[in-house]
């Protein structure tokens, strides 16, 4: 009989071509599967909470896998697994869950944060976007509130994806500036491919006066990716939370 585990982890995406396994490119999923298969001495296939693109980070991520082993939810195993992994991935812990629990399909929300830096910082080159113009944070927050009036975010989706709907329910969208650092936090039931980076690029255009608030509404209503702003660089984007019903899984870190 197999046991299903949820695994909580974080990774720096700079040197990975995203989460998902792909030919001739390093991925987080591939690294985890190799390490788990080596330690457990059985083929392990791992399913993540969702894709992250090349260069995107996760300060919190959840995945699941099945194994015949029954005692992996012990800190010693997480420590051992960490020793097999690159320095860019860290395992927080493993939790036994029901055989039906699914890291992707059972998630009820995901939270992303995008980091802008108004001052050139050599220590943040791989984890933020250096943006040299001070934008209007109040205007950007006003634009973000407009997002709550809509559910169809086709204008911010990568073209030619295989999803059945471009509808999302946004629960949180706000900008906070502390000194020279600006952070955008957005939480929704689901996200489209490239959606957060396109949102940030478009809202920043509001903040520097290229688009007014009525124009931002029109961008959403056009349902046309060509109407929105450019996609901002990947290195500023972090997945920071994945939430599940408490009957399925409760975050431990």
Summarize the structure.
This protein is 22% helix and 26% strand. The chain has five helices and nine strands.
SSE topology sketch:
Blueprint (H helix, E strand, L loop, with lengths): L2 E9 L16 H13 L5 E3 L8 E11 L7 H10 L4 E9 L11 E9 L11 E2 L6 H10 L23 E9 L2 E8 L6 H13 L5 H10 L14 E7 L10
Parallel strand pairs: 3-9, 5-6
Antiparallel strand pairs: 1-3, 1-4, 2-3, 5-8, 5-9, 7-8
Describe this structure in words.
The protein has two domains: 3-106, 2-Layer Sandwich (Alpha-Beta Plaits); 109-240, Alpha-Beta Plaits (2-Layer Sandwich), CATH 3.30.70. It is 22% helix and 26% strand. The protein contains five helices and nine strands, in the order βαββαβββαββααβ. Strand 2 (46-48) and strand 3 (57-67) form a beta hairpin. Helix 3 crosses helix 4 (195-207). The protein is globular and about 60 Å long. The two termini are 28 Å apart. The mean pLDDT is 96.
Derived from helix and strand composition plus strand pairing, the structural class reads alpha+beta
Give the strand tally.
9
Which stretches are poorly predicted, pLDDT < 50 over at least 5 residues?
none
- What profile does the largest beta sheet have? 9 strands, mixed
Q: Based on Cα principal axes, name the global outline.
A: globular
Looking at the overall shape, the CATH architecture of the largest domain is: 2-Layer Sandwich
Q: Give the H and E element order.
A: EHEEHEEEHEEHHE
The structural domain count equals 2
Oligomer: single chain
Question: What proportion of the residues form beta strands (DSSP E)?
Answer: 25-35%
CATH class value of the largest domain: Alpha Beta
Radius of gyration: 19 Å
CATH-defined fold name of the largest domain: Alpha-Beta Plaits
Please, what is the CATH homologous superfamily of the largest domain?
Pseudouridine synthase I, catalytic domain, C-terminal subdomain
User: Helix content range of the residues, please?
Assistant: 10-25%
The whole-number mean of residue pLDDT values reads 96
End-to-end C-alpha gap: 28 Å
């Amino acid at each position: 009989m197999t046991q299903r585990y949820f695994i909580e982890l974080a990774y720096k995406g700079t040197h990975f071509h995203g989460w998902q396994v792909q030919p001739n490119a390093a991925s987080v999923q591939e690294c985890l599967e190799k390490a788990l298969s080596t330690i457990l001495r059985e083929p392990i296939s791992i399913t993540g909470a969702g894709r992250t693109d090349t260069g995107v980070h996760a300060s919190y991520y959840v995945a699941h896998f099945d194994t015949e082993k029954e005692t992996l939810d012990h800190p010693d195993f997480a420590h051992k697994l960490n020793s097999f992994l690159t320095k860019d991935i860290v395992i927080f812990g493993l939790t036994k869950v029901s055989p039906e629990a699914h890291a992707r399909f059972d998630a009820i929300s995901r939270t992303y944060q995008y980091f802008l830096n108004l001052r050139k910082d050599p220590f943040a080159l791989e984890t933020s976007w250096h943006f040299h113009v001070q934008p209007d944070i109040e205007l950007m927050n006003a634009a973000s509130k407009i997002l709550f009036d809509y559910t169809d975010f086709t204008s911010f989706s990568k073209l030619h994806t295989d999803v059945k709907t471009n509808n999302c329910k946004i629960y949180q969208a706000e900008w906070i500036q502390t000194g020279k650092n600006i952070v955008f936090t957005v939480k929704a039931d689901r996200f489209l491919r490239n959606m957060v980076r396109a949102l940030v690029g478009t809202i920043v255009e509001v903040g520097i006066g290229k688009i007014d608030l009525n124009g931002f509404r029109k961008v959403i209503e056009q349902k046309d990716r060509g109407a929105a702003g450019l996609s901002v660089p990947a290195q500023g984007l972090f997945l920071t939370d994945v939430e599940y019903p408490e009957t399925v899984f409760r975050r431990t870190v």
